[in-house]
Design goal:
A: 157 residues, alpha/beta, 2 domains, 12-stranded parallel beta sheet, 2 helices, 32% helix, 45% strand, elongated, disordered N terminus, B: 261 residues, alpha+beta, Rossmann fold, Tumour Suppressor Smad4, 10-stranded mixed beta sheet, 5 helices
């Protein structure tokens, strides 16, 4: 996942923030674009787009991003609005709140996981089912009324 | 009213013909104005301020990137004045990005008056256009008042407002600065290391509006660190600490249709 490929170098062009291996960031980092962390970060990290944590990165922070791809170490909570991927080299100590979760063999994860999107989706599906049922019932009722109307008409005739 | 400002290096004989062609084209297009040829003793700031006081509405900088950067640092304080550019000589990256061809061809761009308004950076009380650079270690960068960056083994720190970061274009209209930290090239270790290509880590990149550069009080060995020099647009120097911000859209400049942003 974190091997350098041509695709990755293409992705780097779109990356807004890149914290290199020799960099230490302390405080509340907030970004609007993709973020790649290869160095150290402590505090909080929030971005509207994706976060990639490189194999040598060490993060001691609560994280929030669209997608979180981890190959390094995170101590803190992770909130991914879409998905989280833990590579075999990753070590996460903290709770994960995510829509989808992929854990590779070898990854270490100590914490609780809350599948948010699954719950929402389940809720949405239940709502859709209810809507369908209601529509069916309405259609059935209409059909029944139509039938009754026809019967009355026939009787009148 | 046009005011033409010739850089002092143009007094060299090799530029005589180019200047004659420029002057002829300026006359053809009817965009003539007062001309001042700078000398080593003549101050750029005083000359431009005097021209503006006399009613100049367009200051045309004739020269290279250094001439233009110097003019912008002053014109950023006068929002009603427009900058025109006639690139002559070497190092004309600014004109290239703005889509302005060299020498007499630039006169047509000025005559067309396609005006754009661009961001200007500010370092302490001075304006800059392209970038500020620090080629040193032992610095702390405080960004947007939210987080601090401590870079180690750094070759160079550059804060861009305009231009190119390697091949990547910097947006001069986004109201933000691009901070780039270039790490040192690491020496290879082990057997046959001399035959291996030296590897450099990726540059770190941050987008900010406000950056404060300070020197560490003590280095890793515990000894005190002196103030560091910051290079501004390659024409001025300043000592740390410094606060760098985006001063906003302060530059009214005549651009070409072929501009690269």
């Amino acid at each position: 996942m974190f091997k350098k490929t041509d695709k990755e170098s293409e992705q780097l062009d779109d990356t807004q923030t890149l914290i290199g291996p020799s960099i230490e960031v302390k405080g509340d980092f907030e970004g609007a674009g993709d973020v790649i962390v290869e160095g150290k970060l402590s505090g909080t990290l929030k971005t509207k787009k994706d976060l990639r944590v490189g194999p040598d990165a060490v993060i001691e922070a609560d994280i929030e991003a669209k997608n979180v791809l981890v190959a390094g170490e995170i101590k803190g909570s992770v909130k991914a609005h879409e998905g989280t991927e833990l590579a075999g080299s990753s070590k996460v100590t903290g709770d994960i709140e995510t829509g989808s979760l992929l854990i590779e063999k070898g990854a270490i994860f100590n914490g609780n996981c809350l599948m948010t999107m699954a719950e929402e989706e389940a809720g949405e599906q239940e709502d859709k089912k209810m809507e369908k049922k209601e529509t069916k019932e309405k259609k059935g009722e209409q059909q029944r009324l139509d039938d009754v109307e026809e019967i009355y008409k026939d009787e009148e005739n | 009213m046009y005011f033409f400002l010739y850089d002092s290096f143009l007094s060299d004989k090799r530029y005589e013909k180019a200047l004659a062609r420029i002057e002829a084209r300026v006359a053809d297009l009817g965009i003539k104005g007062r001309v001042v040829k700078l000398t080593i003793l003549q101050q750029l700031e005083e000359t431009i301020k005097e021209a503006i006081d006399r009613g100049a509405k367009t200051v045309v900088a004739v020269g290279n990137d250094k001439t233009i950067s110097g003019a912008i640092a002053i014109l950023a304080g006068y929002k009603h004045v427009t900058l025109g550019i006639i690139p002559v000589g070497e190092e004309n990256e600014i004109a290239k990005i703005l889509g302005i061809p060299e020498e007499e061809l630039a006169c047509d761009v000025i005559s067309n008056r396609l005006i754009d308004i661009l961001d200007v950076g500010r370092i302490n009380e001075q304006y800059f256009f392209k970038e500020v650079r620090v080629e040193d270690e032992g610095l702390v960068l405080e960004c947007d008042g939210r987080y601090k960056i401590k870079p180690k083994e750094v070759e160079e720190i550059v804060i861009y407002n305009f231009g190119y970061n390697d091949d990547k274009k910097i947006n001069p209209k986004d109201g933000a600065l691009e901070l780039m930290i270039k790490p040192k090239i690491k020496k290879n270790e082990g057997l046959f290391s001399m035959f291996k290509k030296k590897q450099r880590e990726l540059d770190s990149v941050f987008i900010n509006r406000f950056i404060r550069i300070t020197s560490l009080l003590k280095d890793e060995k515990g000894s005190g660190i002196k103030e560091k020099f910051i290079n501004i647009d390659g024409i001025r120097k300043m000592k740390t600490p410094a606060t760098i911000t985006v001063a906003g859209k302060r530059l009214k400049v005549i651009v070409g249709k072929e501009r690269l942003f």
